[in-house]
Design brief:
Layout (H helix, E strand, L loop, with lengths): L9 H8 L11 E2 L2 H11 L5 E6 L5 H9 L2 E6 L5 H7 L6 E5 L7 H8 L5 E7 L5 H15 L1 E9 H7 L10 H9 E9 L4 E2 L6 E8 L9 H13 L5 H9 L2 H10 L13 H13 L5
Parallel strand pairs: 2-3, 2-5, 3-4, 5-6
Antiparallel strand pairs: 1-8, 6-9, 7-9
Helix pairs in contact: 2-3, 9-10, 9-12, 10-11
Length: 290
């Protein structure tokens, strides 16, 4: 039975089970049903779409996802929430809850097992603040394999700002560039910290990531990712110093940058996505990769 009358409120669920969020899992439960409803509206779901939710918590968002999507696969790390989710989701016949660590689970196998159709997949989630970046990177890298079309994710406002940061700013980093490489992004909502239990110290945002057809010329995607990580590991150093550390040859690094018309004194945040692609391709083509 899937209908709006089946929705159970966050506060009622918490009271019934005397449950409280776990800090070590980055849990913050949404208590404002209007915000949840707005997220669902912005996500633009329908019954031709399957949804993955990372960290359903006590099922506040999950219930609305079930009402608006074909199937919902929830992946939750906190085993103590099994009884809670059994209760909050027991009126829905299109939700599967798996108790696994999302970062360690074989997502492709789970998708193949539970979404045995050709429907598009969307991720909708309130992401734990402390692991937002690795979650996004895992989803970026698996998107094509699992037919993932978009992500609608709530995250810390600072992280959202970095995703859309401009070149030459302190917010601009490797995740900014990876996001540009894989997706087009859009700010959907600003979220006040007041709608959570417990209340976090910062406000949040909901960001939409729509995966795009990748027309970039790239010789070795893994090398490109590796160079990005290494360049931003020590972002206060110059590109010359970071590249020298990467290929263990300062003179050769200077030649590479000169050939690419990249100023050796620039820092990682001064290079564009296209610059890093050129650098990666040059290193691969000339056999300078490790």
């Amino acid at each position: 039975m899937n209908n709006i009358a089946s929705i159970k409120s966050t506060l009622d669920i918490m009271k019934k089970f005397n449950i409280s969020p776990k800090k070590n899992y980055g849990q913050n439960f949404i208590i404002d049903a209007n915000v949840i409803s707005n997220i669902i509206t912005k996500a633009n779901l329908n019954k031709e779409v399957n949804v993955i939710e990372i960290g359903p918590g006590i099922g506040a968002l999950s219930q609305y996802l079930a009402l608006n999507a074909n199937k919902v696969l929830c992946i939750e790390i906190d085993q103590r929430l099994k009884e809670v989710l059994d209760y909050s989701l027991n009126d829905f016949d299109n939700i599967i809850v798996i108790f696994k660590d999302f970062l360690k689970c074989d997502l492709l196998s789970l998708v193949n097992e539970y979404f045995n159709d050709d429907k598009d997949i969307v991720v909708v989630a309130n992401l734990p603040y402390y692991i937002t970046t690795p979650i996004l990177i895992k989803l970026f890298e698996l998107a094509t394999s699992i037919n993932l079309k978009k992500i609608v994710a709530m995250m810390q406002k600072e992280v959202g700002q970095r995703l859309n940061a401009n070149i030459n700013t302190k917010e601009y980093n490797s995740l900014t560039i990876l996001t540009q490489y894989y997706t087009n992004t859009k700010l959907l909502m600003n979220i006040s910290k007041n709608i959570f239990i417990p209340q976090p110290k910062v406000d949040s945002v909901v960001i939409e990531f729509v995966f795009k057809k990748n027309n970039y010329h790239i010789n070795d995607e893994h090398l490109f990712f590796d160079i990005l990580r290494n360049m931003f590991n020590q972002r206060r150093k110059t590109i010359l110093n970071n590249l020298s550390n990467y290929i263990n040859d300062k003179q050769l690094s200077s030649k590479i940058l000169s050939d690419l018309a990249i100023n050796v004194n620039l820092r990682p945040e001064n290079l564009s996505l296209e610059d890093y692609l050129k650098l990666s391709n040059y290193i691969k083509e000339h056999g300078y990769d490790k």
